[in-house]
Amino acid sequence: NDFSNEYQMNQLWVFLDRPVDTGGYGWDIGGRVDFNYGTDSRFIVANGLETNWTGATGFYDMAMPQLYADVAYNDLTVRVGHFFTILGYERVEAPRNFFYSHSLTKVYGQALTYTGLLAMYDLTDRFSISGGFQRGWNQWTGSNGDLDNLGFLGGMAYDNVEMGTVLRFAINTGDNNPGSRGNRTVYSLVFEQQLPARFRYVLQHNFGHEHNATAAGNDAYWYSNVNYLFFMINEQWTVGFRHEMFNDEEGVRVRGIGPPKGYTYPEIPTLWQDITLGVKYMHNPNVTVRSEIRWDWAEPYGLKRVHGPFDDYTQRRQFLWTVDMIVQF
Fold this sequence. Notes:
mainly beta
């Protein structure tokens, strides 16, 4: 939500999906393709794919964030193609998120899509592992285009339904930036726990390092902690709270998404924080209304502390109120 004081359509989303299901035995083949038109498409374009379609400079554009095939045998599934990241808690598709706005960690702290191969194996009913290769952050072709220069993507997950506990770890590493200036490694750790009295708590922790990332050729580090707390009032009403701390020590991550799809900001080493309070109302399974208030504040390091990243670099704080509606059909 990088617009202010105007209406926008974030997602007009269409997908075709055939999930694989072997029941633990035998073979199955499936896949998925997604298309989106709207203001969110600027954030999910892949270098070498949508960037070659129209070259549009407006805030409304089209994207195909997923195009993959799945081949499953017993408890093993192999995914080949273009797919969403396995890192983090929040998702790109609006119906899968409680809040309208995203955390900075989701948009800037990790990739949104990959192109490559990912093998996923269910060790037990509770434990699963995954591993494979990818061609770079939000890349169709480009930085990791050569087969001898692929990055790693993988993780593990624990899901205990009886205890209401989910624990997921994922990591990617490789020459993931379009300039191929050096290795970029990011991991995420997500903990979810169902609590008494219809509360649910989620914690996401990320840490990233990139070699030769700054304009001066220095390494860069960033890390974040995002806390969520949800309370389900009844089957229709849920309220939620989110607090995020994102430390961009060298100012290389939270810099916009760049032309022609958006703005680019200079390197501002900053400690970012935001608090979001939201409510979600599900009128029926097809119609959801969400609203939130969000307060962002930034603490730039060093001499740039007198400046702020908001409102054309004049403010260090920002208040947002948003409301949106999701219609599924």
